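Input chain follows. Return structure tokens only.
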Amino acid sequence: MPLPDASLLKPFLTQRHDQLTKAKARRSLGQIQGKIGEMPMTRGFQGALAAGFRTAGAPAVIAELKGGSPFDPGFRAVVPYKALAEDFEAVGASGLSVAVERQVFRGSYSDLATVRSAVDLPLLARDIIFDLYQILEARLAGADAVVLSAALLGTKLGEFRERCASIALDALVEVHTPQEVELALASGADFICATNRDIHSFELKPGTCEALLPLLPADKVFAVAEGGLSTADDRERLGALGAKAILVGSALMKDEDPAGVLEQVLGVETQVEG
């Protein structure tokens, strides 16, 4: 889908495209597919969230690990991925999101591999996906799910979802307008994330999740909410509107006590080793 001229995403996509060109030169599509065929089954990201939702009677929580953000300064210089992943698992996250995109979120697939080796939770690879090759990259790296942006993929969304399904990756379709909700539903998506973050301006637009969640049919869609969420009140409010999971990211990565923030969101008290 063509991006608006003013979209801040354009330079990042150009850089990501260059990275992919180099990656394809190093390892062909066929080589990746062959390796994926030898890999164990994925851990079921959507299923883990559904189990967390049933157990808690409230939205499951996805904790996101990332090294930076283009719209939110103040991140720590070094991210202890292994320790944080272990803490988030101990506190009660149902799944983890790990940034693998370098320019926007200062992440990498090596970060995802570090987290994969540290916890048993299913992992969501956070990338800016516009090429089917990226889906295979994520699966090979150990991801259990990826994010597909309705704004970015447009009518290609169905094709990308099918590719994910063919290699047992869950596809979380991200939407931030009513039109994108329609597009996601038309593609057959049953795992949809309403986000308060505008993909083109990177601005946080509070209230977007509240407007979009009622548009997602509860009997057909497992609804997720994200974007500036950080409290137990956020979890309760969005759960009342139909969210069965929420993603918490920057609030964790900017705080000196990320596990403590997650405890507050979940309303639990745990003893996490320091």
